[in-house]
Amino acid sequence: MVKLLFIIPLLMCIIWYLYLRQNNWTLAQGKKGFLYIISFNLVIALVLTALVFATRQ
Questions:
Q1: What residue intervals traverse the membrane (predicted)?
Q2: On the chain, which terminus has fewer CB atoms closer than 10 Å, C or N?
Q3: What's the pLDDT at 1?
């Protein structure tokens, strides 16, 4: 399951891109959204990594 965690930010970025295209916005206008998506997913990855190391035996 951990191997597939890269799919979540990929799907979120695709959905954000489709939203931008539907509303006739440029990628430059939606850059902040991509940064939020990436930073949110990095925080999740760091928390999950910390949990893995904290629960090692």
A1: 6-22, 34-54
A2: C
A3: 62
Domain boundaries, given as residue ranges, for the chain: 2-54
Query: Amino acid letter at 45?
Result: A
Residue 8: what residue type? Answer: I
Contact indicator for 25, 46 with CB cutoff of 8 Å: no
Between CA 46 and CA 57 the distance in angstroms is 19
Contacts 24+ apart (CB under 8 A), 36-43: 37/9, 37/12, 37/13, 38/9, 38/13, 41/8, 41/9, 41/12
Write out the two tokens for 43. Answer: 């925080």
Q: What is the pLDDT of residue 49?
A: 87
